[in-house]
């Protein structure tokens, strides 16, 4: 068999495998959306859930998911940005940085349930935060830091070294070169990674079962006292998220229309994650286009 024929066969096999994977993924997404989209309505998205009754919504769980995502990103993004800048621009090549990079790789490979159990032992019990938004956000920070740190580091390293040399040649300090030249140039890649990691956090369940809790208390949107457990902005209240709600519905079986609520909530979760992914790519491309044309 000649080389050209072997190459065509190998290429055909790769295309076939890729096509099968795409078809399986598309069929799975289509199945979830076809089952769930008919149950989505404005009342379903805004009304609170109901136990032992028909007609519950996902309003509180959806708000909890978005609020927990916001708190997690407020905590994790500055840390990962600083770590990424250090590893890319300042870290020498020695055993210390090797340990740091190895630790990042280990953290990124940890199952989310392990992160959840660690968060339960440390934040819920040891720090006595209880089942709360802050416990869930801190656990998700551990889950999210490796991904964000590597994204920031790779985005900064993708900036050509001549731009750093140009900044230094103009008399800028190393820090000014990083903050005024390198980081703005790497911004599209950093923002893309932030949005993609947001989608990952939004759909997380295992780590939150043990940290943020499995109940969704009624929220008083007229109460903005952060110390009150009924306040929507309190970080010390329990917060059942959308992904945890789906798991809870299918394990407890206390809802007469649980199958419909689960299908609708799953469709909302899938649509949100798809929006995160497609939005990240669209925003990244637009920012890159603006910066290259400037």
What is the percent of helical residues?
A: over 70%
Uncertain segments: none
Q: Class in CATH?
A: Mainly Alpha
Which overall shape is indicated by the principal axes computed on the Cα atoms?
A: globular
Give the H and E element order. HHHHHHHHHHH
CATH topology: MetI-like fold
Return Rg in Å: 23 Å
- CATH H-level superfamily title: MetI-like
Euclidean distance between termini CA atoms: 52 Å
Q: The biggest beta sheet, please? A: none
State the helix count.
11
Please name the CATH architecture.
Orthogonal Bundle
Helix and strand content put the structural class at: mainly alpha
- What does the oligomeric state look like here? single chain
Binned strand content? under 5%
* Rounded average pLDDT: 87
What does this structure look like?
The chain is 73% helix and 0% strand. The protein is mainly α and 294 residues long. It has a single domain (40-293), classed as MetI-like fold (Orthogonal Bundle), CATH 1.10.3720.10. It starts with a helix and ends with a helix.
Chain-wise SSE layout:
Layout: H1 3-36, H2 42-46, H3 59-90, H4 95-108, H5 112-126, H6 133-157, H7 161-169, H8 174-202, H9 206-209, H10 242-252, H11 258-293
Helix pairs in contact: 1-11, 3-6, 3-8, 4-6, 5-6, 6-8, 7-8, 8-11, 10-11
């Amino acid at each position: 068999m000649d080389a050209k024929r072997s190459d065509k066969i190998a290429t055909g096999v790769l295309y076939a495998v890729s096509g099968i994977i795409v078809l399986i993924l598309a069929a799975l997404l289509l199945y979830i959306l076809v089952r769930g989209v008919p149950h989505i309505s404005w009342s379903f998205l805004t009304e609170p859930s109901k136990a032992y009754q028909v007609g519950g919504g996902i309003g509180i769980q959806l708000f909890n998911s978005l609020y927990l995502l916001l708190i997690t990103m407020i905590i994790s993004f500055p840390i990962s940005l600083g770590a990424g800048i250090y590893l890319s621009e300042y870290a020498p090549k020695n055993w210390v940085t090797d340990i740091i990079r190895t630790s990042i790789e280990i953290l990124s490979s940890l199952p989310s349930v392990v992160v959840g159990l660690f968060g339960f032992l440390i934040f819920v019990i040891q720090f006595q935060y209880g089942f709360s938004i802050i416990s869930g956000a801190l656990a998700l920070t551990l889950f999210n830091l490796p991904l964000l740190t590597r994204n920031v580091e790779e985005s900064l390293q993708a900036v050509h070294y001549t731009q750093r040399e140009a900044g230094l040649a103009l008399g800028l300090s190393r820090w000014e070169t990083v903050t005024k030249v390198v980081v703005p140039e790497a911004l599209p890649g950093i923002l893309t990674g932030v949005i993609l990691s947001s989608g990952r956090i939004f759909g997380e369940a295992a780590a939150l079962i043990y940290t943020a809790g499995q109940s969704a208390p009624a929220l008083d949107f007229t109460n903005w006292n952060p110390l009150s457990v009924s306040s929507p902005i309190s970080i010390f209240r329990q917060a059942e998220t959308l992904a945890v709600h789906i798991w809870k519905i299918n394990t407890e079986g206390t809802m007469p229309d649980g199958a419909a609520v689960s299908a609708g909530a799953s469709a909302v979760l899938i649509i949100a994650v798809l929006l995160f992914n497609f939005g990240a790519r669209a925003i990244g491309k637009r920012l890159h286009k603006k910066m290259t044309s400037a």
